[in-house]
Design brief:
about 290 residues; eight-stranded mixed beta barrel; 12 helices; globular; binds ligand C2E; binds magnesium ion; Response regulator receiver protein
Length: about 290
């Protein structure tokens, strides 16, 4: 039998088509609806200075408030969005929501130095720069409040084009972080060639600190190199105090993780910002 799969296209299903593929198709057409009906929401996770625990930024993390399945994490739908070509629309929506949130916090007088937004490699088209500029202008938000997080795979994709695009973002004042640093195909040439502002050390190098001597050596080397070429450093996935302390001693500047705060919705994040002042944070990370 045939089933509508969005637009006026029809997709023929074989009896043998497996359940997973069916689910995927259903989810894809539901994602189209989700984009129109504002079912996507952003959660925010604070990034803190590792020695003083002052707020240095927030990472925006998308969730899908699915009418049938509840709140879905990106692992359930980002790859699907990439495969189906919906990622650009999704990414634009995310950017729009994040910048609107920055404007809302600014209007409330809440100080969030910057918000980091994850950007898929497939969003790195020439239009992206204008799209971001327009969203920032619409909400009267300075570009310096925005950071774009890209994985290493995004940066190796298409050398010259990506380089120009990132340079345009930097010229505008947007900062650029390499996400999950160390697990992709990182080439040191990339770091020299591209206008990067920060490295986010992947959680896998953090999780076994401080017991794993090898990981200590790797993290130390990453930090030394990053600081020598003027990059900010952020450690991901800090869950334990010992990890925080070790990273602090090694000189990592910032970190995020469940130890400090889990990602929370906008409302709870605003409440957290309202009740959590920097001095309070310095005494006791929440
Ligand atoms: P990421 O950018 O590396 O984000 C960090 C992930 O680690 C988030 O998972 C976060 O909730 C989780 N995390 C934070 N602290 C801890 C911790 O202490 N321990 C552990 N175990 N995990 C921690 P989440 O929100 O499920 O996002 C997963 C990935 O999905 C992100 O990894 C990012 O690559 C992607 N993603 C999220 N939002 C977006 C988006 O708006 N657009 C795109 N293209 N990708 C996104
Ligand atoms: Mg990220
Ligand atoms: Mg990451
Ligand atoms: Mg990660």
């Amino acid at each position: 039998h045939a089933k509508e799969s969005g637009g006026n296209q029809y997709q023929v299903f074989s009896e043998h088509m497996n359940v997973r593929a069916m689910e995927r198709m259903t989810l894809e057409s539901e994602l189209r609806v989700a984009l129109e009906e504002d079912q996507l929401v952003l959660h925010y996770q604070p990034q803190l200075g590792l020695t003083d625990h002052t707020l240095s930024g927030m990472e925006a993390l998308v969730r899908w408030n699915h009418p049938r399945l509840g709140l879905l994490l990106p692992a359930r739908f980002i790859a699907l969005a990439e495969d189906s070509g919906l990622i650009c629309a999704l990414g634009l929506k995310v950017m729009e929501m994040a910048v609107a949130q920055i404007a809302a916090w600014r209007a409330l007088g809440l100080s969030v130095p910057r918000v980091a937004v994850n950007v898929s490699p497939m969003q790195l088209r020439s239009e992206l720069v204008d799209e971001i500029a327009q969203i920032l202008a619409q909400h009267d938000v300075p570009a310096a409040c925005l950071e774009v997080e890209l994985t290493e795979s995004a940066l190796t994709a298409d050398g010259p084009a990506v380089n120009g695009l990132l340079q345009a973002l930097r010229d505008m004042g947007v900062s650029i972080a390499i996400d999950d640093f160390g697990v992709g195909y990182s080439s040191l040439t990339l770091l020299r060639r591209l206008p990067i502002s920060a490295l986010k050390i992947d959680r896998s190098f953090v999780s076994e600190l401080p017991a794993n001597r090898q990981d200590i050596a790797i993290v130390e080397a990453i930090l030394n190199m990053a600081h020598c070429i003027g990059l900010r450093t952020v450690a991901e996935g800090i869950e334990h105090t010992e990890q925080n302390v070790t990273l602090g001693v090694l000189g990592c500047q910032e970190g995020q993780g469940y130890l400090f705060c889990k990602p929370r919705n906008a409302e709870d994040t605003t409440a957290w910002l309202t009740t959590t002042t920097a001095p309070k944070l310095a005494r006791a990370p929440v």
